Amino acid sequence: MKIEEIEFLGSVDTEGEWAMEMKEFGLNDVVEMKKGHPCGANAWKIIRMGADIRIKCEGCQHSVMIPRVEFNKKMKKVLVKAETEAE
Ligand SMILES: [Zn+2]
Questions:
Q1: pLDDT at residue 7 above 80?
Q2: Which end of the chain is less enclosed by CB atoms within 10 A, N or C?
């Protein structure tokens, strides 16, 4: 019936659950990656969030864009949590 269909669609939308299993990070957080930047620094500021995440090296200000999935794999930990939790 229709109700089953709706429930099914609801359970398919697991993006929220999936996100919770991931390391927590947000815009303007400074993170450490598994591999540092060739410049010697290993602190990256998240400057853009989306399907792709743009991070900027705190050492040389070089910025790179990586797919979110890749980012999750390569990120080690959050070094500095951004103070503002603005939506
Ligand atoms: Zn760098």
A1: no
A2: C
Dist. CA 49–CA 51, nearest whole Å: 7
Which token pair is 31?
């993170």
**Cβ(54)–Cβ(65) under 8 Å?**
yes
CA 65 to ligand 1 center in whole angstroms: 14
Domain spans in the chain, listed from the N-terminal domain onward: 25-87
42 C-alpha to center of ligand 1: Å?
A: 8
Q: How far apart are the CA of 59 and the centre of ligand 1, in A?
A: 5
- For 26-84, what is each residue's pLDDT tens digit? 999 999 999 999 999 999 999 999 999 999 999 999 999 999 999 999 999 999 999 86
pLDDT of residue 11: 45
Q: Do 72 and 85 meet the contact criterion of CB atoms below 8 Å apart?
A: no
Centre of ligand 1 to C-alpha 47, Å, is 15
